[in-house]
Amino acid sequence: MESRDEEWKQRWKSEHLKVVSSFYNTAGGRMIIGKADDGTVIGVQNHSKLLKEIPDTISNVLGISADVSLEMIDGRPCIIVDVPKGERIIDHDGDTIHAAEAQPTWSEKMS
Predict the structure, then answer these.
(1) How many Å apart are CA 82 and CA 42, to the nearest integer?
(2) Where in the sequence is the domain holding 16, given as residue range(s)?
(3) CA-based Rg of the chain, rounded to a whole angstrom?
(4) What's the CATH number where 24 sits?
(5) Residues forming a β-bridge with 76
(6) pLDDT tens digits for the chain (111 residues)?
(7) 30 burial class (0-12, 13-18, 19+ CB within 10 angstroms)?
(8) Domains held by the chain: number
(9) 12 CB contacts (<8 Å, ≥6 apart)?
(10) What is the pTM of this model?
Protein backbone atom coordinates (compact mmCIF):
# COMPACT_ATOMS: atom_id res chain seq x y z
CA MET A 1 0.00 0.00 0.00
CA GLU A 2 1.25 3.47 -0.83
CA SER A 3 1.92 5.68 2.16
CA ARG A 4 3.27 9.08 3.09
CA ASP A 5 6.81 7.78 2.57
CA GLU A 6 6.27 5.39 -0.36
CA GLU A 7 4.91 6.09 -3.85
CA TRP A 8 4.38 3.67 -6.73
CA LYS A 9 4.74 4.72 -10.35
CA GLN A 10 4.25 2.60 -13.46
CA ARG A 11 6.99 4.44 -15.35
CA TRP A 12 9.44 7.29 -14.81
CA LYS A 13 8.32 10.76 -15.86
CA SER A 14 10.04 14.04 -15.10
CA GLU A 15 6.86 15.20 -13.34
CA HIS A 16 7.75 12.71 -10.58
CA LEU A 17 10.43 15.19 -9.47
CA LYS A 18 7.62 16.78 -7.44
CA VAL A 19 7.36 13.55 -5.42
CA VAL A 20 11.14 13.46 -4.97
CA SER A 21 11.18 17.06 -3.70
CA SER A 22 8.24 16.33 -1.39
CA PHE A 23 10.08 13.36 0.15
CA TYR A 24 13.25 15.47 0.49
CA ASN A 25 11.32 18.27 2.24
CA THR A 26 9.72 15.91 4.76
CA ALA A 27 11.04 12.71 6.32
CA GLY A 28 12.43 11.18 3.13
CA GLY A 29 10.78 8.38 1.21
CA ARG A 30 10.88 5.71 -1.45
CA MET A 31 9.49 5.66 -4.96
CA ILE A 32 9.06 2.31 -6.68
CA ILE A 33 8.97 2.59 -10.46
CA GLY A 34 7.38 -0.39 -12.13
CA LYS A 35 4.48 -0.81 -9.72
CA ALA A 36 0.92 0.31 -10.50
CA ASP A 37 -1.31 2.26 -8.10
CA ASP A 38 -3.25 -0.92 -7.31
CA GLY A 39 -0.01 -2.64 -6.24
CA THR A 40 0.41 -4.75 -9.37
CA VAL A 41 4.10 -5.16 -10.20
CA ILE A 42 4.61 -4.52 -13.92
CA GLY A 43 8.36 -3.90 -13.94
CA VAL A 44 10.30 -1.56 -16.21
CA GLN A 45 11.66 -2.31 -19.66
CA ASN A 46 14.63 0.06 -19.90
CA HIS A 47 16.11 -0.29 -16.42
CA SER A 48 19.75 0.11 -17.54
CA LYS A 49 18.97 3.51 -19.07
CA LEU A 50 16.85 4.58 -16.08
CA LEU A 51 19.56 3.69 -13.57
CA LYS A 52 21.62 6.52 -15.10
CA GLU A 53 18.87 8.90 -16.22
CA ILE A 54 16.96 9.16 -12.93
CA PRO A 55 19.85 10.11 -10.60
CA ASP A 56 21.26 12.46 -13.24
CA THR A 57 17.88 14.19 -13.61
CA ILE A 58 17.40 14.47 -9.84
CA SER A 59 20.88 15.96 -9.45
CA ASN A 60 20.70 18.30 -12.45
CA VAL A 61 17.17 19.60 -11.84
CA LEU A 62 16.78 19.48 -8.06
CA GLY A 63 20.42 19.80 -7.01
CA ILE A 64 20.13 16.88 -4.59
CA SER A 65 21.06 13.22 -4.66
CA ALA A 66 19.01 10.09 -4.16
CA ASP A 67 19.96 6.42 -4.12
CA VAL A 68 18.65 4.74 -7.27
CA SER A 69 18.86 0.96 -7.58
CA LEU A 70 17.39 -2.03 -9.36
CA GLU A 71 15.33 -4.51 -7.36
CA MET A 72 13.50 -7.59 -8.54
CA ILE A 73 9.96 -7.57 -7.16
CA ASP A 74 7.77 -10.58 -7.96
CA GLY A 75 10.37 -11.54 -10.58
CA ARG A 76 10.16 -8.22 -12.40
CA PRO A 77 12.80 -5.47 -12.52
CA CYS A 78 11.77 -2.31 -10.69
CA ILE A 79 13.66 0.90 -10.03
CA ILE A 80 13.88 2.00 -6.40
CA VAL A 81 14.47 5.69 -5.68
CA ASP A 82 15.36 6.27 -2.03
CA VAL A 83 15.22 9.96 -1.16
CA PRO A 84 16.79 11.15 2.10
CA LYS A 85 15.35 13.79 4.38
CA GLY A 86 16.83 17.07 3.22
CA GLU A 87 18.83 19.64 5.10
CA ARG A 88 17.18 22.53 3.25
CA ILE A 89 13.78 23.12 1.72
CA ILE A 90 13.42 22.85 -2.05
CA ASP A 91 10.37 23.77 -4.13
CA HIS A 92 9.97 22.29 -7.58
CA ASP A 93 7.30 24.07 -9.61
CA GLY A 94 8.01 22.45 -12.96
CA ASP A 95 10.86 24.57 -14.26
CA THR A 96 12.39 26.24 -11.24
CA ILE A 97 13.77 25.05 -7.94
CA HIS A 98 13.61 27.42 -5.02
CA ALA A 99 15.95 26.53 -2.15
CA ALA A 100 16.01 28.00 1.33
CA GLU A 101 17.68 27.02 4.54
CA ALA A 102 15.47 24.80 6.64
CA GLN A 103 13.91 26.58 9.58
CA PRO A 104 15.35 25.53 12.94
CA THR A 105 13.21 23.17 14.97
CA TRP A 106 11.72 24.23 18.30
CA SER A 107 14.45 22.38 20.20
CA GLU A 108 17.17 24.11 18.16
CA LYS A 109 15.63 27.50 18.92
CA MET A 110 15.67 26.74 22.64
CA SER A 111 19.38 25.83 22.77
Answers:
(1) 19
(2) 6-110
(3) 15
(4) 3.30.950.30
(5) 73
(6) 778 889 999 999 999 999 999 899 989 999 999 999 999 999 999 999 999 999 999 999 999 999 999 999 999 999 999 999 998 888 766 544 544 444 444 333 344
(7) middle
(8) 1
(9) 33, 44, 50, 53, 54, 79
(10) 0.82
